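**User:** My hope is that you can spare some time for a protein that puzzles me. I have put the entry right below:
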Amino acid sequence: MKHTTVICFANNKGGSGKSTTCSNVGAALAKSGKKVLMLDGDMQLNLSLSFLDEDKVLEYAKSSNNLYQAIKEQKDLKDYIVSTPYENVDLIPSSTLMSSIEYELFTKWQREFILRKLLKTVRESGTYDYILMDAPPTLGGWVLNLLCASDYLVIPVEASPWGLFGLANMFEFLQTTQEMAPGLSLLGIVITKVDERKNYFKQTKESLEALEDIHVFSSLIHVDSTVEWAQDNSKPVINYKPGSRSAKEYTALAEEIKTILQEA
């Protein structure tokens, strides 16, 4: 039976490249032969839109077959998994109704652990090597749920003047979560939207590398318009244009993640 590793991609600052990093790491892991389940935890539906066309995503979002409905009704997530056009990649789609998920959680018993409970059957089945989850850019009860259901957290940080804004809050939130879920670890920080011609990239990199006991991935994700074209076509850049710079960088990041986990 496979061991299933659950990784959450989260950052309370929007625009960090979180959904793009999550989707393309998942696509790269799948291309390497790993079975991957993607869980879209954000009302913006970006992770779902990375693998399915807009009509299909909106169809799921309006139906009873999405993550919001599973959480609301506290149903086993195995019944909410849908196929994607990509080998080794399945998806639990999101809904725009996720905007009210905090209210739904507020009324539930042991609300911090609802997702972990609903994911248990899928995880223990050994069907997947990895479950990758995309969190919304907030710090609240739902993100707490996502983190409590995870083994590891990856924080994408944009190489920009505002990229580090709020990171201290993210660390503090992680520390609080670990008191409830001691099995959760920070896998590392990945620097995204890199433009090495600009000074703030160097400042961002130096500031992150100066953090004590925090791993910063050596794989950098540079600015690349191919990513936007891939998103416009509802495809991971790994599949849209495998020879592109971004595809190679996300592949390298996925390999780096696998290596770290093997050594853990």
Remarks:
- The radius of gyration is 17 Å.
- DSSP finds twelve helices and seven strands in the chain.
- Residues 245-263 form the longest helix (19 residues).
- The mean pLDDT is 93.
